[in-house]
Amino acid sequence: MKRKINIKKKIQREILKGFKRIYWFNYTRIKYYILTLNKLIRQTKTNKNKISLLLPSKERSKKFKRMMDSLSTTVHDKSRIEILLLLDENDKEKNLYKNLTKDNFKSFNIKIFEENISTHAKRNNFLAQKSFGDIIFPINDDIIFVSKSWDYFIDLEFSKIDRNKPMCLWINSGKKYNYLHTDFPIVNRKWFEKLNYVGSENFNFWYLDTWICALSHISKRFIVSSKISVKQFSADTFENEVDNTFLLNRKDGIPEKDFEIWNNTKNERIIEAKKLV
Fold this sequence. Notes:
The chain is built from 10 helices and 8 strands. It is an alpha/beta fold. Helix 7 crosses helix 10. The chain is globular. The model has no long low-confidence stretch (mean pLDDT about 95).
């Protein structure tokens, strides 16, 4: 009898997952086409935004260079890109980062901060407070930019909505169901001002993107675009990407602890999402 009940619950969960996928698939696509059509009809101007890239990094100067190389070859207008790089005060590769910014990427506006800040979300929030961009784009050092003129397409997508209202842009980060979750969601300044943070500081390391996506779903203040693509060389997928920084963020059961925190903060996500409506 117990086995039959478990099978029944499993079937029910799968049915609910199916309905959820169908709903968000249709919702996001219909919304995107309506917003695009509305822009065409109204001939809304595509405003050029200042874009702030938030990049906490730790002992990954080689990955930083790989990311910057891809950015250099894909960006449309680097003059409006602001890169905020956060390093620990005792980072062993600090000078390597600085040499790269001076020698390889001196034409970019890269601001380096040295602070010992405990969690990933707090690091991103620190950088967001220091940023001046109209658009805030939290990134990792283990990504590469794939789309040509990705910054132009960020302008294009955000021009479809009222810039005085909070909005989140979901990009193509390689997720199968990109209407259920994306890595590296982009928010506008108004989103940040409404919440006064980018990532929830409840967590030890994980769930920054997941929190943003959850608030997006609850508030429906988001659009999904396939025009901006990045590829992440995650150590979870690529064995040769494993490094000390990855292992540090895995120790002492941090992922498990953050998963428990996630399960206990559902009501808080609802409260926070209401600030965006």
